[in-house]
Design goal:
The protein folds into 2 domains: about 1-110, Jelly Rolls (Sandwich), CATH 2.60.120; about 115-245, no CATH class. The protein has 6 helices and 11 strands. It has helices spanning about 95-100, 115-150, 165-190, 190-205, 210-215, 220-245; strands at about 1-5, 10-15, 25-30, 30-35, 40-45, 50, 55-60, 70-75, 85, 155, 160. α2 (about 115-150) packs antiparallel against α6 and α3 runs parallel beside α6 (about 220-245). The two termini are about 25 Å apart. The model is unreliable at about 75-115 (pLDDT under 50).
Length: about 250
């Protein structure tokens, strides 16, 4: 029995001979399987079991920020360092062994389907859509409250008054854009939560410019600025927490 340690972002090539009869169990963090063609495969979370003999997996990597550990059980001792603290410490022949892995299906334990990358993306999307509904309701109520105290939401340049449903529609559209950005970052970024917060805050700051250029009175301009911040206060923390939960 040995333990493989993967620091954040670390990648370890799969050596066919060492995994011939080995069974792995993720005991800490998360481990992503890298397929033979280089595409990212399923993500295994804590307590997930897997074996790699005769599979198309060519490497293991840690996609999260926490150090991941894999307990490797073998029926007989192998000439491998008992614990690796460097991603390539036990794999000097990485390039040669990588090509020796047969390109067949990925084989993993029963927890594989529940912890797949698709499952994580779907969970993030569901969380985002729930937050979107909450943001739409909060923004519409805030606009109604502003109208009740005398804000007319009249835009002189267009000569029109913004209706309450308009706030819900615009909030819903840009909230969905935020969900798409979050899903894309979870799929392709090593630090999705931090990058999402930076991107979302930047876009929110840019969205505060149009109210100043609309030519509306002071009360309407102030109300519009506040209504831009309401959905941001709902969506950004919710999606950021969801991204962190799926990368830790």
């Amino acid at each position: 029995m040995r333990t493989l340690t993967l620091r954040s972002g670390a990648r370890v090539a799969v050596v066919a001979a060492e995994w011939c009869d080995a069974f792995g169990v993720v005991t800490r963090g998360r481990v992503q399987l890298e397929l033979r063609d280089g595409e990212p495969g399923p993500v295994l979370e804590r307590d997930a079991g897997f074996w790699l003999r005769g599979t198309g997996v060519r490497a293991l990597r840690n996609p999260g920020r926490r150090t991941a550990r894999v307990r490797i059980l073998t029926p007989r001792a192998r000439t491998v360092t008992s614990q690796s603290t460097h991603p390539y410490a036990s794999h000097p022949m990485m390039e040669d062994d990588m090509n020796s892995v047969k390109d067949t299906g990925t084989v993993a334990g029963p927890a594989l389907g529940r912890t797949s990358h698709t499952h994580r993306l779907r969970g993030l999307a569901v969380t985002g859509f729930v937050a979107t509904l909450a943001a739409m309701v909060a923004t519409t109520l805030a606009a109604a409250l502003a109208q009740a105290v005398g804000v007319d939401f009249e835009i002189p340049d267009g000569g029109e008054t913004i209706p309450l449903p308009g706030f819900a529609v615009v909030t819903g559209f840009f909230s969905v854009v935020g969900i798409v950005i979050a899903v894309a970052l979870l799929r392709w970024s090593a630090r999705p939560a931090e990058r999402f917060v930076w991107t979302a805050v930047t876009l929110t700051a840019i969205s505060l410019v149009p109210p100043f250029l609309s030519g509306a009175n002071t009360a309407t301009t102030t109300a519009l600025l506040g209504l831009h911040l309401v959905p941001a206060a709902v969506m950004i923390p919710t999606l950021a927490r969801s991204l962190r939960a799926r990368t830790d």
